[in-house]
Hints:
- This protein is an alpha+beta fold.
- The chain is 21% helix and 33% strand.
Amino acid sequence: MRVAKGMSYIYDNRGSAMDNVCRTEADGLRVTWRLIQDRLISIIAVHDASDASPVLSFGPAAYPDLVQARELHPGLTQLWDAVRRDFWNTLIPPRRNKTVQWQRS
C-alpha cells in the first residue's frame, strides 16, 4: 500500500531548511525524497515503515536522483515506482473528472 504524505520541512546536518520534502510508502518501506528546482527528485533516505529503522541513507553531498537510486538499489523497484507516481501527482495534480452523464429519454 502506497501512502503519500504531505510536504514538510526537515533540516539537513548543516541546519538549513530543506523544503519540498515528501514521503512515500510501499512494501513496508518509507522513502524520504525532495523536489529540487520543482522537477528533480533527490532521494534522502529509506526507512522501515513499521519501526522507522534505517534501511538506506545518503549524505547531503551525495543525494542520488531517482535514476541513480534505481541503479544502486534495483531490488526496491516497487518503492521507486511509487516515488515516481507521487512525483508526477505532485508536479501535475490529477484533475477531477467533471464529465456530464448523458441520459437517454
